[in-house]
Task: structure prediction
Amino acid sequence: RREPLALINLKKKNEETGEEELASRLNHCKAKATRHIFLIRHSQYNLDGRADKDRTLTPLGREQAELTGQRLASLGLKFDQIIYSSMTRATETTEIISKHLPDNTDLLREGAPIEPDPPVSHWKPEAVQYYEDGARIEAAFRNFIHRADAKQEEDSYEIFVCHANVIRYIVCRALQFPPEGWLRMSLNNGSITHLVIRPNGRVALRTLGDTGFMPPDKITRT
Result:
C-alpha cells in the first residue's frame, strides 16, 4: 500500500483543476530514493546454552563478526542505521560490527516463519509455532522492507542483524517468490545479503549469503 494512488484521498480531488491537481498530488507521494538493505546473519554461537542469554558467540563467532564488520567498512558506504534482533547472538554480533547501535527490535528474533515446502525431516516445529512466529516475522517484513518514504531525498544504506530463517523468508517475500520455499536456501554465519528497493517498489537481490570475504576455515552454518 505504498503506491502513490494508495496514499491520497481521491474523494478530495479538486474538481476545478481535475487531472492536473491529481498529477501534482501523485508526484508529491512518489518515492525518490533507493533503499539498500543489508541483512546480516549472526555469527556462530554456543548451541549448548539452555536460555537465550547463554547462547553467546563462540570465539570463532567473534572472529566471524570482526570479518563481517571489516567487509562492511570496506564498502565505503555511509550506513544510515543498524537495526538488530534482541536475541543475544544477534546483539553480540552487532556490538562487534559497530559501536553505535541506533535501535533493536523483537520482530527480527529467530522463529518458524511458514511451513516449508517441501518439508524437512530433521526440523518439525509444532504447528502453533508457525502461527506465532509467522505473524511476527511477516510483521518485520512489512515494517522494514518497503520503498523509501516520499520525504527521503537521498539513497539510504541500512544494516539489519538477525537470523537465517528471518532473512530467507524476507528474501522470498521481497522477490515475490512463494514464501514456503524459504528453507531451500542456506546461509552461513556472518553472511551478507543485499537487497535493493527502487523508488517504484521493484526489488533486486544483489547478493545472497555472501561470505567470500572469510577464509574457508572460518566459515560455518550452525
In short: The helical segments are 19-29, 59-74, 88-97, 127-144, 164-174. The mean pLDDT is 90.
